[in-house]
Amino acid sequence: MHLGAWLGPLCRGLRRPVGRTPQLVRGSLSRRLVLSSRRRIPEFNSFVSRTNTCGELRSSHLGQEVTLCGWIQYRRQNIFLVLRDFHGLVQVIIPQDESSASVKKILCEAPLESVVKVSGTVISRPPGQENPTMPTGEIEIKVKTAELLNACKKLPFEMKDFVKKTEALRLQYRYLDLRSSQMQYNLRLRSEVVMKMREYLCNLHGFVDIETPTLFKRTPGGAKEFLVPSREPGKFYSLPQSPQQFKQLLMVGGLDRYFQVARCYRDEGSKPDRQPEFTQIVDVSSVFRKTEIRFLQDALSKPQGKAKAICVPEGVKHIKRKDIESIKQFAADQFNQEVLPIFLKASRNWNSPVAKLVTEDQRLELIRLMEIQEEDIVLLTAGEHKKTCSLLGKLRLQCADLLETKGMVLRDPAQFSFLWVVDFPLFLPKEESPTELESAHHPFTAPHPSDLHFLYTEPEKVRSQHYDLVLNGSEIGGGSIRIHDAQLQQYILATLLKEDVKLLSHLLQALDHGAPPHGGIALGLDRLMCLITGAPSIRDVIAFPKSFRGHDLMSSAPDSVPVEELRPYHIQVSWPTEAEAEKDSLNQPHQQKS
Amino acid sequence: MHLGAWLGPLCRGLRRPVGRTPQLVRGSLSRRLVLSSRRRIPEFNSFVSRTNTCGELRSSHLGQEVTLCGWIQYRRQNIFLVLRDFHGLVQVIIPQDESSASVKKILCEAPLESVVKVSGTVISRPPGQENPTMPTGEIEIKVKTAELLNACKKLPFEMKDFVKKTEALRLQYRYLDLRSSQMQYNLRLRSEVVMKMREYLCNLHGFVDIETPTLFKRTPGGAKEFLVPSREPGKFYSLPQSPQQFKQLLMVGGLDRYFQVARCYRDEGSKPDRQPEFTQIVDVSSVFRKTEIRFLQDALSKPQGKAKAICVPEGVKHIKRKDIESIKQFAADQFNQEVLPIFLKASRNWNSPVAKLVTEDQRLELIRLMEIQEEDIVLLTAGEHKKTCSLLGKLRLQCADLLETKGMVLRDPAQFSFLWVVDFPLFLPKEESPTELESAHHPFTAPHPSDLHFLYTEPEKVRSQHYDLVLNGSEIGGGSIRIHDAQLQQYILATLLKEDVKLLSHLLQALDHGAPPHGGIALGLDRLMCLITGAPSIRDVIAFPKSFRGHDLMSSAPDSVPVEELRPYHIQVSWPTEAEAEKDSLNQPHQQKS
Description:
Two copies of one chain form a homodimer.
Chain A: H1 2-13, H2 22-27, H3 29-38, E1 65-76, E2 80-85, E3 88-93, H4 101-109, E4 115-124, E5 139-150, H5 167-172, H6 174-177, H7 181-205, E6 208-209, E7 227-229, E8 235-238, H8 244-252, E9 258-259, E10 263-264, E11 282-283, H9 294-301, E12 305-312, H10 315-318, H11 321-335, E13 339-343, H12 360-370, E14 377-384, H13 385-405, E15 418-421, E16 427-429, E17 437-439, E18 466-471, E19 474-481, H14 486-496, H15 505-511, E20 519-523, H16 525-533, E21 559-560, H17 563-566, E22 571-573, H18 578-584, E23 592-593
Parallel strand pairs in A: 3-5, 6-9
Antiparallel strand pairs in A: 1-2, 1-4, 2-3, 4-5, 7-8, 10-23, 11-12, 12-14, 13-14, 15-18, 16-17, 18-19, 19-20
Helix pairs in contact in A: 1-7, 11-13, 14-15
């Protein structure tokens, strides 16, 4: 697929330091600055009064008269001052002679984080005072004139150890947080990544960048879209969850190779992470059809019951008895399930009485099914399908953490491992009413061509042409081949899903007017940027993120609106009772991006 | 200013045909296709089953086996078929021999605008049947196999003369309208223009592309922002009119050289065009302080009364007596004002008794003030300042139209003439209450440094650091240097404008924490694209525009929403009375972009 073709080189090309751990990246100021000073910015200083940026000066500039603007990062003994702009840091020498008293006064009295403009000469630092960890560490600026452009009031916190601040404080003073080298790096890298994507799509492959509206009609399937009241009584726009209908209409309109960096609005309430659990599990139910182990017997006697196992390669070397105990404890506490560790050599069973009930035949069958090597550990559990998968997924990550603390390198953060997930079911039974079907992805996804015949007999067996892309274990995107046949779309919407097709009549009509076969993919840019930068939260790769509860902590949005401003939109607030208010506090919106 | 630096070469570089009229551009299919086939798209046919696009085949492809996909544009005598994709047109020969009966059946029975895939050989057209107006006119495709990918139902109109359709029909079937070569050209050109802007800003000048939120807090100053109810009772987000606060906060955050292709949401009701009238007028009140001409006397006796004039160069040659009569009629009908034409030579006054009342001294003073040449006509009017400007602006355009019908080339559409408008007032008297002030632009615009002293004494005299950019007479952008001093901002907001500063406390706080001096500009992309493509309406350069009344005619948004979907947002509809409904129908929203 062509996605890998650009994402791979793109990621490799982004000067991502190899072999680092995410913690190091977030901490290391000077390396960030090395990275950013390598960036080639021709003509950068055109149109501005500064002659240079703070980060670019080197020994090759010695003797030059320069004018710099920046924030006062640090001051020592009223002699040295470190000036910062987005491009880096530079040391400035405050003049001490009588004739420069006014310059000294400005530079010594301005509070930290004030904005100043200085002019002076680039000189070399005295021998022994060079700072090799600072890109501009060989030089300093002998200042002649200085101007205070804007003073800074007392800061709500010290800038330098910003990462130690609470996230709420960081969001409230976002404009200060954005000055940190880490946020500068993340946001500037994001801009570069998006630009590289555009260059690849537009310049190399003739894609066309088209903006689609954000004020649209609500799509069927529930209350996940923000509503926007219009000036017509009772009429509302909605903010689309994604441009999915527009994408299709553009294909029908012949706008081949469309792309867009689009915003998606999802009022998701209590669904903070849509990411499903991905596990490599092996179903071993058949091995244990006849077993004396009670919890396996119990689980497998139920209709949805499965026995499943994961293999921890070379687990014997690193996972000790107390680790196994804590894994078992975790499974019992969190999932109310039992976990049985199995070893290739019977001698390693740590005297578990239950484990001895695994027969030699069963052990051999497991070895065959799971391709177990001598030093591996198998973790076996049983129960309801979904719960079992969830538990083993968690255990797999726990074991990986454990092995990494013992020095094994399992997940190199500098490695980008892509995985396509395919063959999803087209429909799933509705949770609240399992005899009815709902779309596993969305109702526009095309069925797998080999499964078309099931559509009219056993629709639950139909696989979809939906695909997800996973990077280093995180879902970063997904897409599908869409239905281009109006009759098929009508059948799926009306007959199988019992949806109100009137809301989608424009789409059905469009399919009927020569819609070409088409499909696409959407990447989650926020999550992708998290993986590339090693940021712990998508809030670290977004300039002005909302809090988990959907609040803008800086401006305190959402906010009350006077009644007279609601009047043109023909709405009024229905104030909830106290009991209702309590219930509602569980449902909080937030805005997503893809 | 650097704007001209990139916009100029950009516009010149866009392969805009020189000397054409807008009408020609919109009509000429084949030239559009020539333009688009010149576009360099390497590797275009990677990842798809077609081997070529319809528009790219030439004599150099003779003998090649190709697979094409496209829409059936046209069919003649069941022998020829013209296939279209976004890249152009190609002629396909329907096989007539018995063995190809099934291929013939597919190609002859498929309705026009159906999607087909054909494979065959590129052959040359028989001598004399080449079509030199068609880029692929030397060749045709001898088809071997054909597949109907999707049939098209009866079309609501014939595709070929789409431009004759009503705009409502075009918007309702937007996916068909988008297939027209004109819309394909406009939208693909728009994508290229935006890409060139990005390359200039990001790659050449180190700008950083940052997306700012669209769910924000309402800004003070009225009901022009769409509201988005949240799940918290009585709390609303608003869709920002522009990212203006975020722009400033990014500057405070040290994200130097920020740009964004942003959406602006303005619920502007009955304000369809914010474009002010720009006229080059000369104020000639002083010349006529003492005059016997009654309408000048009347006008100048009032406090806001002005006498103003425009000069029509070489007007005598082309503007006849009946033209002058129709100009006078227009002024009387539309503006209830008199217009007096004045000629350098008294003999050309067409015996107007009023014109004879212009004294020789006045005539000479006019000549000096307005630099009149012998063959020019001066059009003079008097009255209230704004009305006079408006009338003369209209007359200026009318005269230009008139002169152009006589063969003079005044406004070459292939020429891009830029104009900066500066020295706007910072404040204007409020229309409803002229003793109070309101911002002429917005309250964040910085005062002109030379006028700072007036701020505390005669604020209405302060000029602003606001600037507008005009291209060929249309405003395409504007911006300002912003206030970076918190005290000054507070004074203007609270003391002069009497705004509630609580709504902006986050901004005032940000300015107090080391905000650098900053400014910027925003271009209206829709209007700019209109000027570049010669499109008559911004709806021709937007993929899915709203109608003038803010409706999406394709999906019929905005739409009703069931009561239960309003409940999570704690709102209910207040249905208006019949009288209120009538009044409201005058206020219609629409969505803008910049």
